[in-house]
Design goal:
Elements: H1 2-15, E1 20-23, H2 29-36, E2 41-44, H3 49-61, H4 71-79, E3 81-84, E4 90-93, H5 103-118, H6 125-131, H7 133-136, H8 139-144, H9 147-167
Parallel strand pairs: 1-2
Antiparallel strand pairs: 3-4
Helix pairs in contact: 3-5, 4-5
Length: 176
């Protein structure tokens, strides 16, 4: 059964052209080996769950991101506890009692932080409005095409976006 789940996830990742994933260390090498059998490279996160939560918290509090309206996610985030550790470092974790989990919260935090770290620039709303008309007219057609053609159109649009960003002063982080 676990091998079937990995195969299904790997097929979905390949469909979207994603060759590599980052995960926690749960399950040891079995998880990385299982994904590897399906052509997906998995690396262990250099950040602990606590590090992910600590890095996500200011983004969430400041309104820089909005999470899915998922009851399990909201419950797990509300149950997280922040505790001071020796040396003044904080640790964030779920209560160490039966019935408390943080798997969904951990996955969301990892997705948010790794996506944020991979972004080349954050655009203001005005910048997005200036660029989007150049691309948006292609989207309906792109979404109707078979997977590979859709990826080609989206990659072309990404290249166009990169070119436009460079002409406007290069990759940068812009605060709203």
């Amino acid at each position: 059964m676990p091998d079937e789940v990995v195969a299904e996830f790997a097929a979905t990742l390949r469909h979207y052209g994603i060759p590599e994933v980052v995960g926690d260390r749960f399950g040891g090498e079995w998880v990385a080996d299982s994904f590897g059998k399906h052509g997906i490279r998995m690396t262990a996160s250099e950040l602990s769950a606590s590090d992910l939560y600590l890095e996500m918290q200011p983004r969430l509090s400041s309104g820089q991101l909005v999470l899915l309206n998922d009851e399990k996610l909201k419950l797990q985030l509300r149950q997280l506890e922040r505790r001071a550790q020796a040396g003044g470092r904080d640790k964030v974790d779920h209560p160490q009692l039966a019935g408390f989990h943080d798997d969904v919260a951990n996955a969301a935090a990892g997705a948010v932080i790794y996506a944020a770290r991979s972004m080349r620039g954050v655009w203001t709303e005005a910048e997005m409005e200036a660029w989007m008309p150049r691309f948006i007219h292609r989207l309906p057609d792109a979404l109707k095409l078979p997977g590979q053609r859709t990826l080609e159109i989206l990659r072309s649009a990404e290249e166009e976006m990169d070119s436009w960003m460079k002409s406007e002063g290069g990759s940068r982080i812009v605060k709203p």
